[in-house]
Amino acid sequence: HDGRVFSTGGDSVLAEFGSAVEAVRCAVSCQEEISSRNAELADDRKLMFRIGINVGDVMVRDGDLFGDGVNVAARLEGLAEAGGVCISGSVFEQIKHKLSLGFEDMGQQEVKNIAEPVSAYRLVPGQASAAATTATKPSDGKRWRMPAIALVVAVLFAIVGGALWWQPWAPDVEPASLEKMVLPLPDKPSIAVLPFDNMSGDSEQAYFADGMTDDLITGLSKLSGLFVISRSSTFTYKGKPVKVRQVAEELGVRYVLEGSVRRVGDQVRINAQLIDALSGYHVWAEKYDGSLADIFALQDKVVGQIVAALAVTLTSAESAQSGEAETDVPQAYDALLQGWELYNRWTPQDFTKALSHFERAIELDPGYSRAYAGLAAVYWNIVTWGWASYTDIEWQHALNRAKDYVAKALEQPTADAYRVSAELLLWQGDHDEALAEIDRAIALDPNAARNYVSKAWILTVSGRAEEAEEKVRLAMRLNPSYRPNYLRALGRALFHQERYEKAAEALERAANRQPDYEYTYVRLAAAYGNLGRIEDAKAAVEKYNEVVGRTGYRSLTVQEIRIYLQSRYHYEETYLERILDGLRKAGVSEGAAPGACLSCDKNPEITDTVVPAGTDDPY
Q: Taking Cα atoms as reference points, which of 104, 249, 228 lies closest to residue 479?
């Protein structure tokens, strides 16, 4: 076909043709020959290729081909199906009247590192083109040639297979540096999933793209053979121009998954690409098409590709979980995603709105465990964060609903259901069962940072501060963009190891990031008191009184904290006295005797904890 191979890097071939027609003929011929050879092979021996073809400006340097024409061809190859051919609009215009081949218009495609959308067409095998009006070869026997202008066609072949990586002729992104990584790489394959772009052309569908990202993170997070960065950290990059190298170096991971979601009605297309940040190469790039009813199967395919590419060994339990659909009602799943999108905004007003979507999901599928877990989480957080007044949901009602919904969720338990259950059990003072329940959550989702923060709190209350510190630090590694509550959990664990200086440092950082959370100042005042820093301790007490004063509650006393920690959580006695002794050293008065009314008809242990709307997500 009068083509010239310029380079073969990894499993790719880059070739140049003087004719768009001959480039397409070559591509079709190659795919037919490969298909014929594969027919004689067992499935695990077959190799599938993708081919992308573009017409564009290029330049030759050091015996290789460079330029935008090559870059677009590479992107088109990524859009092609396994065993397929994808061509640009410029190629299609040159061949549509010359070759009897059928092509499907894929529309304008947003592709990485190309400023403008690329018009793309997919070869449809066995379909003839109605536009072809000339013979496939001119009657004079000579091959058709492009005019003598500075344009060539770049065609890229890349192997796509379960255990083979796509490695183009040069790194596709700037490689990350181990030396510049903020955190050391874990001892297992580590991955960050960036928020998938919403390509639906409708901003109202953003929740769906975010939901896809969340569920891919969750799907990967359940695999013990991977180290998966938390959603809270990766979503800090949403809507920002960010390089793979930056993500890898800031989060301390080797692999980055990015992609897009396009939804039109009930039809869904997921484009995903996995990048090895250390080498700069794509491990694979693929697109997945299906209906909303197929969504869990599509997600499983993406997760399965990652598992195969990174050679992750699944446990028998993990293998059994794969392929399970959480609901058979696509509309219920859609309602659930809308609920989680509001939940993740973390304001009392959005919590209230989320309830209606979770309730709608249950109306559509009364057995939808994950929707029950969502309802339990909303009501429980209204209780623990003192948001009853913000949401107009009475405190006792919220508590009762949290208990009812978590019981329903536990009929088909998820990690979220176990976590809420564990926190409820801790609140009731049942330390042993709370620990058992949070361990069940971790077994289902071993990469969920929020589970380790919850476990740290349970361990601290139980008198196991060293173990609590270990769990908090693991949570911080899984979620490097952690929120202030992680620092409070670390401060508590350090405090009860009598490492007061380090505890004060962690609590000071928490207070700086969230100055209106009053209970930070309780532990901070106690730490200062035990360190003999009395003026600092008095300032912390004053800050506590200032914050609670805005809500009409009274000033800090030793006995109020005793009741708060002892009656509700059954706080380990040695640890409890350590806090109270620090407060006494800080000059805090004893206050009312145990059993006295602190807030009369209010529940002081819970309703005194008022978090300003939108300031923090506890996980």
A: 228
Closest CA to 328 of 299, 293, 358: 293
Residues 416/340, Cβ–Cβ less than 8 Å: no
CA 88, CA 53: separation in Å to the nearest integer?
6
Give the highest mean pLDDT range of 318-332, 501-515, 538-552: 501-515
Residue 490 pLDDT? 97
Length of the chain (residues): 619
CB 261 within 8 A of CB 152: no
Long-range residue pairs from 337-343, CB within 8 A, at least 24 positions apart, any chain: 337/207, 337/208, 337/210, 337/211, 338/207, 339/371, 339/374, 340/211, 340/214, 340/374, 341/206, 341/207, 341/210, 341/211, 343/374, 343/377, 343/378
Distance separating alpha carbons of residues 588 and 566, to the nearest angstrom: 18
Q: Which amino acid is at 122?
A: R
Residues 269 and 287: their CA atoms lie apart, in Å, by 7
Contacts of 344 (CB under 8 A, 6+ apart): 210, 214, 231, 617
Specify whether the CB–CB gap between 577 and 562 falls below 8 A. no
The answer to whether the beta carbons of residues 50 and 160 sit under 8 Å apart is yes
**Could you tell me whether strands 59-61 and 281-291 are parallel, antiparallel, or unpaired per DSSP bridges?**
unpaired
Interhelix angle 395-409/369-384, nearest 10 degrees: 150
Average pLDDT estimate for 365-387? 91
Is-contact 230 479, C-beta < 8 A? yes
Asked if 245 and 173 touch (Cβ cutoff 8 Å), the reply is yes
**Mean pLDDT taken over the chain:** 82
